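so my prof wants the structure for this chain in the tokens format not the other one, which i didnt know existed until like an hour ago. anyway here's the sequence
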Amino acid sequence: MTMSRILVATVGSRGDVQPYVALGQGLRAAGHDVTVATCERFGPLVTGHGLSYGRLSDDFLKLVDSQEGHAALEDSTNVFGAVRTNLRLARQAGPINRGLMSDVWDVARQVRPDVVVYHPKALAAPHAAEALGVPAVLAIPVPVSVPTGDFPVVGMPRLPLGPGYNRATYRLVAAGFAGYDRMVNAFRRDTLGLRTRKGAAMMAHDAAGRPIPVLHGISPAVVPVPADWPAHAEMTGYWFVDDASDWTPPQELADFLDAGEPPVYVGFGSMAGRDPERITRAVVEALQAAGVRGVIATGWGGLAPGDLPDTVLPLTEAPHDWLFPRVAAVVHHGGAGTTAAALRAGKPSVICPFIIDQFFWGGRVAELGAGSAPVPQKKLTAPRLAAALHEVTTSDAVRNTAAELGRRIAAEDGVGRATARIEAVVSQAA
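here's what i got, hopefully its the right format
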């Protein structure tokens, strides 16, 4: 098809940005002009992968990174905890969200896109698309927006209450987003000159009443496509950024990998809680008790290395697609992106979840047989982690299941499928 201008808008941590950079790369490779609008600290990530950057404020991430933000996040272990978190941060978050909506609109006016692809936290995105008279596509790495009877919404327990219970849980997400309806409608009215809409903060339909397409950047090998999903919802496969070919490991890491059996990778992204020293001590003791070597990622404000034994190497960062194939197992927080990378590498996981969706991925990996039962960070002790490490590094069943799942995911083309779907949306709107 002819070249289109595409705006991709996302807000959040690196895990909320990197899949959209991958999607942007795929769209650019297909001949389109792509701008990724996201928080300012990720501008270099966007431009470093050959995409145009649209600036959004960093204030949201500064709030999350604050002491109050960390404390609130630690309370977000389920849907109800997330509601409490929103209430605790509402006073600070209100002005931040209003600023982000203005930022998205500023970028949209500059880009004049033919389609807007967005993360649900970019609240202004579908409204900006409506104001410009172009279609919007919701793109999301977690299955939370399309109800199904197959499983409850992320953050709610799996109970033997049948499809009715499962579908009902999705109303909790809609209720949470409804708290932003007044603010979003004020933006529609005062900034965009549009009429107010019911459910404005979580738009399911465009101005003509057509369902907004929803693309899930998830492998159907990990989350099977629900039989009751509507036609506008699709599971494309994961969206990966591949950096391995352009990355050279530091000599210390290369030497460490060559010096013995493949180590276990341990990294919690930016989520090591308020006591990273305790987490680090537990991790080191667990690695030693399990008799395995370890690489501990210390970047993104996470684990504090301190004094480590010779069998444990601290690492600021390394591309997951380079490092994970070279390790024995992956211990992580259960973010969607890290979970996907570990699965694609065919490596067992020990997931130590902190907040809502991480518990979902931890449970899913355990159900698939590709890792241990989750070890929630609040219950993380050296003996519990050591037992999980022993399981995933010695069980042939776990290792074989993870390897087979990795082969299935590697054969998918999630970015290609999502690109084709977005192109179809643009063609239909032309």
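also thought this was worth mentioning. The two ends are 11 Å apart (CA to CA).
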